[in-house]
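Possible regression after last week's pipeline update?

I re-ran a chain I had predicted before the update to compare outputs. Posting the input and the new output here so someone can diff against the archived version. Not blocking, just want to make sure nothing changed silently.
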Amino acid sequence: MGREITMSMLRAGLIKPWSVLADLIYPPACAGCGTWTGAHRSLCPACWSGIRFIERPYCEVLGSPFSHDLGMGILSAEAIADPPVFDRLRSAAIHDGVVRDLVLGLKYRDRTDLAPMMAGWMLRASDGTIAACDAIIPVPLHRTRLFSRKYNQAAELARHLARLSGKPLLAATLLRTKRTTQQVGLGARAREDNVRGAFAIPEGRAGDVFGGRIVLVDDVYTTGATVTAATRVLKKAGVADVTVLTFARAVGDPI
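New output (post-update):
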């Protein structure tokens, strides 16, 4: 025990000077606005207060926030009229303001350092589905887009979710085999057409997910076209239950 304490203290003594030096070169700043803060990967009070987290009450299937509590198990009109192919959707926050800036930073500005913080919020918003799942799968990028972007933002979030939860990460079980155009700016029908037939499970990998409970991870939920197409492939492979988990979600006013 004495040796363990000594080694721990030694490591702390070696790491601390480098941490202090790093903080001098790269001072801790708000991930939203850049204001100096007391810790890395954190938000200043102003940015934090502007985030609209998605909390209960919400639709049990689509996770759509309700303006008042209607009781447990209540579904939204949309979920009743047009049930999704996935079993449920959960998201951490509404896609506006600081949350939109975080998404754009991770997706387009090489801010992979934001992924651990964002994944922590997603784990909290998962409503126990990660604890109950068998594996985590990110929505994949096509190889050409992955080459140009250098990383997959959904895979970064999924990687940290797997680390935080201890659940298996199946990063190569679902592939994007069709090079689709950017979804930004497309209408709902155009988005569906764009991702139709875009995903596949490689030969010999269906056993990874057959009969399992999967959490499918993406950065933003808008119309749901992408995760719907991906879920169809997973369900066809025998997946028993699919939870879609995103960091942000585009919504209007609470129902």
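Follow-up from reviewer: compared with the archived run. Confidence is low (pLDDT under 50) at residues 1-5, 18-22. Marking as no regression found.
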